[in-house]
Write a structure and sequence with these properties.
about 30% helix; 6 helices; Rossmann fold; about 250 residues; single chain
């Protein structure tokens, strides 16, 4: 049974980032205590950059056994890893390099391959990582676009109807480019899913995704429902401004 999302609404973006960082630390330490590793799928785009920098800061870097964290990507732009648009490069600069994360802990999407091949290979990488167990990340981090997309699940794209558990290539017409994305069924299997959304420009999308009648073609983020884990939304007051008072 899908659980209702839990909303964390903070006054400022800084408080949102701190709240999510504390949540990350809590989950990481729980997973490492129970299973010896913590697996996380990172989000791309602008919002997570400050979050990654906070995790790598003196306030947080000593609170996690980083050598026991394995990093995946919720989606990737189909560009070289050296391209400024690369989600991998963003995470490398803001998180991996400052924390001296070993390359063996980073599972990047190989954008040197053709899009379909890159997606197939990443699906295999995920399957190999989890082995005989269900592919279930400890945490999937997500953002939200002002068009209500998340990961690279964009409105009116075929990947919205993908039933496979893995990665899939998608051509995003508005970007005139390919992306590689985790499928909604894989994201939804996670132990925990956390949206990080702040800024007034996201308020309309937040309101639509959380309160409008289900319409995944127009509002792809509605596809994200925690099947057996937990779904958290970390919002600032500006992003939550259009939500009804009953949800705040």
């Amino acid at each position: 049974m899908n659980k209702a999302p839990h909303l964390h609404i903070c006054a400022t973006p800084a408080e949102v980032l701190t709240g999510l960082a504390d949540y990350f630390v809590e989950l990481a330490n729980q997973a490492i205590s129970k299973r010896g590793r913590f697996s996380v799928a990172l989000s791309g785009g602008n919002s997570p950059k400050k979050f990654y920098e906070l995790l790598a800061s003196s306030s947080y870097r000593s609170r996690v056994a980083w050598e026991k964290v394995d990093f995946f990507f919720g989606d990737e732009r189909y560009v070289p890893h050296t391209d400024p648009e690369s989600n991998y490069l963003l995470a490398k600069k803001a998180l991996f390099d400052p924390l001296q994360i070993e390359s063996s802990q980073v599972f990047a999407i190989d954008t040197a391959l053709a899009p379909a091949e890159a997606a197939q290979q990443y699906t295999q990488t995920i399957e190999d990582y989890f082995g005989q167990k269900q592919a279930r990340f400890d945490l999937v981090l997500l953002g939200l676009g002002d068009n209500s997309h998340t990961a690279s699940l964009f409105p009116h794209t075929p990947v919205l109807h993908e039933t496979g558990v893995g990665a899939k290539e998608v051509f995003v017409e508005e970007k005139k480019a390919y992306r590689i994305t985790l499928t909604a069924p894989l994201i939804n299997q996670a132990q925990a899913i956390a949206f990080l959304v702040y800024g007034a420009d996201k308020a309309a999308a937040v309101q639509r995704v959380l309160t409008a009648e289900r319409n995944v073609e127009e509002l792809p983020a509605q596809l994200i429902t925690a099947v057996s884990g937990e779904l958290q939304w970390f919002l600032d007051a500006s992003a939550a401004a259009q939500l009804p008072d009953s949800q705040k």
